[in-house]
Structures are given as C-alpha cells and as structure tokens.
Amino acid sequence: MSYNGIHLENSISIDKIFSIHYFEYMNTFSFEGESHDFWEFICVDKGEVGVTAGSEHLILKKGDLLFHPPNEFHAVKATGEIAPNLMVVSFGCQDEAMQFFQKRHFKIDKTEHNLLAEIIAEARWCFDCRLDDPYLQNMPLKNPDKFGAQQMIRLHLEHLLIHLIRRYSRPSSSTEPASPEPLKSTKEKNDMETLRQIIEYLEVHLNGHVTIEQICRDNIIGRSQLQKLFKERCGLGIIEYFSHMKINAAKEMIRTGRMNFTQISEHLGYTSIHYFSRQFKKTTGMTPSEYASSIKAMAEARFNGEP
Question: Same domain, yes or no, for 150 and 195?
C-alpha cells in the first residue's frame, strides 16, 4: 500500500514582520503620521484614540482593530480624556485574501484578543528591544531567541487574520440546528464566565482592599476553586492579580496627568505613598517617578522628531 501525501495550501502567508509594538501613551500624545508599502493594524487595548486613515477620521475604542493597507497615510492622536494602550503590528503579505481588510475595522473577540496577547509574548522572546519605541525602524533579533519564537509570531498572526475573515464572513443566521456543546466546552464557558464576573467585581473594588474570603463570599465560590481558576487562566493568584490591576490603573492615571502620586495612592486605597511606590516598583521594575519620566521622555523626544 502506498500513501499519497497532500500538499497543504496557504490561504494567507506572512512573509515579513516590520514591527510589533505595545504602547502606553500619555493622554496628550499625537503622532503626525506616515505611510509605507506594507500592511499595519492598530488595536486599542485600553482607552480610545482618534485615527486618520487616508481621508477618513474615526475614533477607536477598547477592542477596536483597524487595518491600514500599503501606502495609506495614517496618523494617531489621543482624545485627551483617557491615556490609551495600543498594539500596533506591521507586516508584509501579498495574498489576494488581504483585500478583505481594505477600509474595514473590527471589534475583536476573545480568541482574537488571546492571539494578539500571544504575538506580544512571542515578540518579547524574539526581539532584543523595547516594544514601546514608536520610531524603532529595525527590531534586532535576540541571539539566541527562544526556539520557535519567529515561527509562532507568524502562525499566531496568520491565525488572527484567518479567524477575522471567517468570523466576519459568517452568515448572521443559520437554518442548521445547533449541535449540543461537549461537556468540556460547557465547563470552559462556565469558567470564563465566572472569571469575567470576578474580574468585574475586582474592578468595582479597585479603590479599596479585598480579601480572598470576601471575594469568595460575594461571588459564591470556594477558595480552592477561586485560586485554581486564576492560576490556570491568568497565571497569578487572585490577590496578586488584583495588585496588578491596581498598578495598571495607577499607570493610566500617571499618563493622564490629573493626579499626583499621593492622590493616586489614596484613590487606589493604598495605606501610604511609600507602600504604593514599593508595590509599583515590584510590578513594573520602576518607581512611579521613573515610569512617569520614561513615558514623558519618550513622548517629548520621539514625537518632536529627536533621534
């Protein structure tokens, strides 16, 4: 008996990566714009921004993803209200299927959000540079990089593009009866719903102090189940996750510039400015002052065209 192998065709192939960035911007930042001969997309992780895409001007909010085709002029400007977090990826692709993304923007789902997070994670293993420098034209590779990092970036990006095309090409209604969900899928959805509920609870209590016992009581969940859920889904214990949420909120407040460090510390329920500073440095590797100086210097130097 002889076997005939099947050559697998590619629907979309990424041939080059030009940049992968994750920016934490001030609420006053403005990028005058550029155009280039490759594709780029921008995704808003937090906050909102005004975007120019050719002759169009639009506001992108959390979860919005917009593609710029080759040679389209594009610019970005914060709206002044919220300090935005943005992911920007530029890449080369010559496939006809990319025409699907012309003049379109999308609202990402959970799968697409996870794929974007995986691309950032692999980029940190792959490139020997910061991912928040907007004018870094060449991203040097680590030597050696993590095994498979470059390939994983390409695979995750191709998966993202295929998933978007499939999801937005899907008919809005179907006459076919829905199949019963497997038990594992049902449990997965229940876990994600519980996680979403608890994260929303933590967001409500972000300016205070919560204990594991309080979280369990208010969300009707056992302690061991709670800890297992966050370890498996987030890689952190529940209290450590809550601490990271507070620090991320503090970073946004610093970039917005409406409160000083003492006011931010009090607003987020820290017992003292000193404890806040220690927790901030533990999480970010910088003190609040160092973080503020870093973000401000990047904005002032880079966006004013200094080398």
Answer: no
Residue 2 lies in a domain: no
Q: CA 49, CA 31: separation in Å to the nearest integer?
A: 11
* Matching residue, tokens 């610093």: 254
- Quote the percentage of the chain above a pLDDT of 90: 73
The one-character DSSP state at 10 is P
Which residues touch 39 (CB under 8 Å, ≥6 apart)?
67, 68, 69, 70, 90, 91, 92, 93, 98, 101
Q: Is residue 175 part of a domain?
A: no
Q: What is the pTM of this model?
A: 0.77
Closest CA to 259 of 275, 276, 236, 234: 276
Identify the band that residue 103 occupies on the pLDDT scale cut at 50, 70 and 90.
confident
Domain boundary among 141, 169, 197: 169
Report the pLDDT value the prediction gives residue 305, as an integer from 0 to 100.
43
What are residue 41's DSSP bridge partners? 67, 89
pLDDT in tens, 154-206: 999 999 999 999 999 977 544 444 445 455 568 788 888 999 999 999 999 99
